[in-house]
Predict the structure.
Amino acid sequence: MIELCKVEKSYPVGAGRYYVLRRIEMQVREGDFITIMGPSGAGKSTLLSIIGMLDGDWSGEYDFLDHPVHKLNMKQRAELNKKYIGFVFQQYHLLDGLTVAENLDIPLSYRNIKAADRQAIVADTLDRFHIVGKRDLFPSQLSGGQQQLVAVARAVIANPKLILADEPTGNLHSSQGKEIMELFKKLNEEGTTIIQVTHNESWAAYGHRIIKLVDGWITSQK
Ligand SMILES: Nc1ncnc2c1ncn2[C@@H]1O[C@H](COP(=O)(O)OP(=O)(O)O)[C@@H](O)[C@H]1O
Ligand SMILES: [Mg+2]
């Protein structure tokens, strides 16, 4: 599903360059559940945003399904993202001007689903995440943990083929975190491919493979 070959990302610093990712080689099959771990600053979020096609400024080759991403323009990449990927951002990135229900509707609006059905799916999802009472609130009216729940709900609501989750439980109580991990486990058993970043050993173990990233290098994959 995903094949990264010699992927690198760097920023100019003075006369040289500062490398955030070095010669990344990574293969992901459909149905995989992968955990990425590594110290802060290792490049984990950068790697996820490249895989999620949100970053256009890197070198190397990236094949996603039958698409050579490195040859696509940003508009084409955004279309692939909308069609196939649910992304949980480390900083949530909910749209401040929209209510919780409206935020959840966005991924559905990219699909060919009737408005009435979309409303029903949003209602079901609010229920599943125990946030029915928050439906008409704006993100700024929620706690960090509640925003994170909405961010996870938004990432899964449209049944994406691939879920990319950047520390998706970092702000949740452990019981809520476990609920999210059990949800990911169930979605993965149903065929969804998942790549998560976590610092939590218990949540890491939900993955079938662990990739360790240190200073932009993959130091182990097993
Ligand atoms: N715009 C930028 N300019 C220079 N360095 C950056 C920029 N954005 C991120 N970085 C650096 O890239 C490295 C990796 O960041 P990140 O992918 O967020 O790491 P992680 O998610 O593993 O904590 C960090 O050292 C960070 O300082
Ligand atoms: Mg990060």
Observations:
- The domain at 2-221 is CATH 3.40.50.300 (Rossmann fold).
- Residues 11, 20, 38, 40-46 surround adenosine-5'-diphosphate (ligand 1) (CB under 6 Å).
- The chain has one domain: 2-221.
